[in-house]
Amino acid sequence: MAMSGVYNRTLEYYKQDFAMYGDVTSDNLLRNPKTVTMLNQFNFQNSTSDDALAVGDIWLNIYATLNNTNNIIAALPGLKSKFPEQVNTLDSISGQALALRALFHFDLCRVYAQSYNFTSNAAHDGIPIVLKTPSPGQLIPRNTVKEVYDQIITDLTNALPLLQKHANATAQTGMSYQAALALLSRVYLYKQDWTQCLNYANMVIADKRYQLADPEGYLDAFLVTRPQNQTGTKVEVIFQLTSAGLPNDNTAIATIFSSAAAEYSASAKLRNLFDSDDIRLTTMFNVSIKPDDTNFGKYITKKYADGVISAVTPPAIQVVRLSEVYLNRAEALYNLQRYSEAAADVQLISQRAHRDRPITVTATGTELGRQIADERNRELCFENHRFFDLSRHKENITRGADCNANTCLLIYPNNKFVLPIPNRETQANTALKQNPGFN
């Protein structure tokens, strides 16, 4: 039951501000004139006083989930001694909890700290590493980004043998051995350790239990929860968070991104990345525009609902899919100058999206690097990746001609590439150093 609570809390932060942050702050979206959700983030007008908005909510919700997880980890040794007949179950819980703790630190660090390569040795401020629930009034300083990543990798690595030996019966809806491998490939991608990124991506891809969905089942990969052992079904989603039993609300990702009242839509810059016959354009957006929103883009993503109904709780939030792992591998191969292999992975993802004609990718060098980045955006848009990808590539945020934000160009490097630490945290924990540029 305790782990179920952790998964529920994880979904709570994944279906709200955090899960939208990487797209709202990117060059992919337009806002509805009536938008109120994450408007400060869209305009890069964040304030330390936004305790009740995304600035405060993301920090509070993830650290609360982290504390719950740490309590479970701390209790496990005693439980193993008291219930030796349950050691396999407890080891499985331990593996899940360690991998989730790594994910929580990674998510926090991406939002409140500059990317790993912001300084040459990642010695810039990260977030506080919390491995046990703090005592009341305890002062906890920020660790460096390198220290945070070292802890993330340690937790994921320690989780692997436990997850491999004691498989999680909940399959896609729980942290599994394959999900931990996939997350390691992502972490090493951000760290720019291309050899390790390639190593872990290869391990996931070699596991034949996960396969890319057929073009006809692409939308279903998002909106239909499939058992991992269902005969004849290709399972592309490696780790997802299900929303069964959790209430919907006006800040849920389905309402903000995929309902008739959607507050954000795809920009022309994003839409123009797709070929006209790309299934990710033709089947994954609802073309709809309301008479009172004539200045609002009409392409609403279907990744969380059908884009029509006014309120819906999505059946699942996708945390990691196999297609991302292929694209992680492509980027790693590219940076290792193994261009033909990198091009083959890009071609595989693109071919799935173009079911009626053959796709060939032959580019090398800088052009191939750009094709990988564009394919990643086409495949993973609205899945909380774009802004973080631009940041780790040290690229400007350059919104298109239809930009309706207050900030249409943000030059890298910039203090606004991170959120400020919320006031309530710096006041309660005076050891916390505020991010530069925020008072």
Question: How does this model look, in words?
Answer:
By secondary structure, this protein is mostly helical. It has a single domain (2-36, 46-403, 411-428), classed as Alpha Horseshoe (Serine Threonine Protein Phosphatase 5, Tetratricopeptide repeat), CATH 1.25.40. The protein has helices at residues 2-14, 17-24, 39-42, 54-82, 87-112, 145-165, 177-191, 194-206, 220-223, 253-258, 268-271, 279-282, 322-335, 339-353, 365-380, 386-392, 423-428; strands spanning 29-31, 237-242, 264-266, 285-287, 299-301, 316-321, 397-398, 409-410. The strands form four sheets. The protein has a two-stranded antiparallel ribbon with strand order 1-3. Mean pLDDT is 91; it is low at 228-232.
What is the residue-mean pLDDT, rounded to a whole number?
91
Could you say what the CATH topology is called? Serine Threonine Protein Phosphatase 5, Tetratricopeptide repeat
Strand content: 5-15%
Q: Which structural category do the helix and sheet elements fall into?
A: mainly alpha
Number of helices: 17
- What is the total tally of β strands? 8
Radius of gyration: 21 Å
Termini separation comes to 41 Å
Q: How many structurally independent domains?
A: 1
Overall body shape: globular
CATH first level:
Mainly Alpha
The CATH architecture name reads Alpha Horseshoe
> Helix-strand pattern, N to C?
HHEHHHHHHHEHEHHEEEHHHHEEH
How much helicity do the residues have? 40-55%
- Pick out the low-confidence regions: 228-232
Largest sheet: 2 strands, antiparallel
Question: Which sequence of strands runs across the widest sheet?
Answer: 1-3
